[in-house]
Amino acid sequence: MFHRESGYFKTTYQSDMALYPLPIGKMAIAGFAVIFFVIFPAIMDDYYLTLVNLAAIAVVGALGLNILLGYCGQISIGHAAFMSVGAYTAANFAVHFDFPFWLSIPAGGIMAAVIGLLVGLPSLRVKGLYLAIATLAAQFIIEWTLNHTPAISGGVQASIEMPRPEVFGNVINTPMEMYFFLLPISVIAILATLNLVRSRIGRAFIAIRDQEIAAEIIGINVYRYKLLAFAISSFYAGVAGGLATYYYGVANYEAFPLPISIDYLAMIII
């Protein structure tokens, strides 16, 4: 049973803002580490490892959308489109410039963040249903652009075959190897998100979500933080798209249609 130890009090601001303020939190993290890094690999076959690998990719993408919608209150129905931007960017850098995964995946995230900034511009003037329609339009515009720009998407079939990722010279091929490749990345994404929402930026996001006018009155630059939320969310989506491309071995816009955007909305709501 999880419980709060009697007599443990937060006496400083640092302790109140600590990532794991209670000793039980550190113990729980250690327990989860044993489960995911020791027990699960020992008992799961390739089928279940494949499911967990897909879930690890989805975690990264869902965290990004949760930052935008859950913490900043800005809806997006074009999340899958930003994933496709990250996927094609990572694929082009990996294939044409021979970038390793640890460069091509962040590059995909950065490109998606740039596109997210542009798509986020309507959020400065509209909100709610109108913003949802604007992001929905971005989904179809990005899909059309990728499908009709061979220089980006690799030809008439709009697909680019990806090399397998390498770690210290070892090529990652099996579901087990991919598990140990994807799981640490998803853990890093979770920790980064936890730290972000506890920071000044995260508190500004929450203030905008709860009461935009009040946030502006107390000195928060609402426009800047809205755009920042779109950029951060799109960066996560781009990274998830890059991971998916390495996992599937091909970048294809058909892997990121509108239903995927709806799926991610369902993930963070449920």
UniProtKB/TrEMBL annotation:
<feature type="transmembrane region" description="Helical">
    <location>
        <begin position="20"/>
        <end position="41"/>
    </location>
</feature>
<dbReference type="InterPro" id="IPR001851">
    <property type="entry name" value="ABC_transp_permease"/>
</dbReference>
<feature type="transmembrane region" description="Helical">
    <location>
        <begin position="128"/>
        <end position="146"/>
    </location>
</feature>
<dbReference type="GO" id="GO:0015658">
    <property type="term" value="F:branched-chain amino acid transmembrane transporter activity"/>
</dbReference>
<keyword id="KW-1003">Cell membrane</keyword>
<keyword id="KW-0472">Membrane</keyword>
<dbReference type="Pfam" id="PF02653">
    <property type="entry name" value="BPD_transp_2"/>
</dbReference>
<feature type="transmembrane region" description="Helical">
    <location>
        <begin position="47"/>
        <end position="69"/>
    </location>
</feature>
<keyword id="KW-1133">Transmembrane helix</keyword>
<feature type="transmembrane region" description="Helical">
    <location>
        <begin position="178"/>
        <end position="197"/>
    </location>
</feature>
<feature type="transmembrane region" description="Helical">
    <location>
        <begin position="101"/>
        <end position="121"/>
    </location>
</feature>
<dbReference type="GO" id="GO:0005886">
    <property type="term" value="C:plasma membrane"/>
</dbReference>
<feature type="transmembrane region" description="Helical">
    <location>
        <begin position="76"/>
        <end position="95"/>
    </location>
</feature>
<protein>
    <recommendedName>
        <fullName>Branched-chain amino acid ABC transporter permease</fullName>
    </recommendedName>
</protein>
<feature type="transmembrane region" description="Helical">
    <location>
        <begin position="227"/>
        <end position="248"/>
    </location>
</feature>
<keyword id="KW-0812">Transmembrane</keyword>
<dbReference type="InterPro" id="IPR043428">
    <property type="entry name" value="LivM-like"/>
</dbReference>
